[in-house]
Description:
The protein is an alpha/beta fold. The protein folds into three domains: about 1-235, Metallo-dependent phosphatases (Purple Acid Phosphatase, chain A, domain 2); about 240-305; about 310-355, no CATH class. It is about 25% helix and about 25% strand. The protein has helices spanning about 20-45, 65-75, 95-100, 170-175, 255-260, 285-290, 310, 320-335, 340-350; strands at about 1-5, 50, 80-85, 105-110, 115-120, 120-125, 150-155, 160, 165-170, 180-185, 195, 200, 220-225, 230-235, 240-245, 270-275, 295-300. The strands form four sheets. It has a six-stranded mixed beta sheet, covered by helices on one side. It has a six-stranded mixed beta sheet with strand order 5-6-7-10-12-11. It has a three-stranded parallel beta sheet with strand order 15-16-17, covered by helices on one side. It is elongated, with a radius of gyration of 26 Å.
Amino acid sequence: MLKIIHGADFHLDSPFSGLTPDRAARRRREQRELLDRLAALTREKHADLVLLAGDLLDSEHVYRETAQALREALASIPCPVFIAPGNHDFCGPRSIWTSLDWPDNVHIFTSDALEAAELPGCTLWGRAFISPHQDTCPLEGLTVSDDGNVHIAVLHGDVDGVEGYGPIPRAAIAASGLDYLALGHVHQGSGLQKEGNTFWACPGCPEGRGFDEQGDKGVLYVEAEPGNVTAQFVSLAKYRYEIISADVTGAADVLSTVRAALPEDTRNLICRVILTGEGQPPDLAALDRELSPAFYGLTLIDRTRLPRNLWARRGEDTLTGLFLRTMWGRCQAEPDNPVCQLAARYGLAALEGGEEP
Length: 357
């Protein structure tokens, strides 16, 4: 039984362009900590193999500190490490995969042709992206022999994907005869899948970088033997992205209502809280002052609507009634457009002599 740690899509040195330069640099430093947690996991699980299925780096432009951290972390892993470069960190003349000296336990696939590595009781296959795009199936032409070994492949590719990123038809997985196919590219974990007699999985990214990568992230701990594979998700993420909705309809205390919708521990949460329901405009600045210190990052978004009883005034023969009739029509035509709601609030506040919401 082989014990395997399977990871992919670390995207180290991501630009984090939506953050300030200081905050982006901090997030890149924090990304490097994933490598230490990966190395610690391999020791904890007494792993026989570590498979890294591409896009460890976000691009070919790598900070010196990141290259050093990666090399040191891989050297500390007490078993062989196999890396299949992906479309972001493809193996080219200027890539660190060919320009740096790597520890003896690290094998990097540098060709776009399938290469086999022989290990005790195991044949391991892999290949690299050698440019940002690859139109052919990474498994093309692979059919393994039934020789009693565990047959595994580590590849960067997209099951049922479009051309350009190593598209892999499910029929090719089944025809390969592999025991386990370790994939990278898709940032959402697939869970353990099976085509024919071949098990396959994509672990997803080990930590989210935006609200399109929500929830807990990590790697897979895999146990493999001929004809049988099991896989367990293991969290590596320190920070999580989450989008949470809080309905504040009729809330006498909006702050308490929002807090009730939040998880108990938010220290490592990067959160977008969306306020919904009906009511007067919430004081976002005050809510932010109260809530932000408990989060790693917090954004508050107001998507509440005017109370229906205010809309009832659109029947009045007044300037306010005329305004509300006009805005009612706009809001009904674009019910999901928050700008219409904001325009109604600002206009009503101006007409009634109130303060801006």
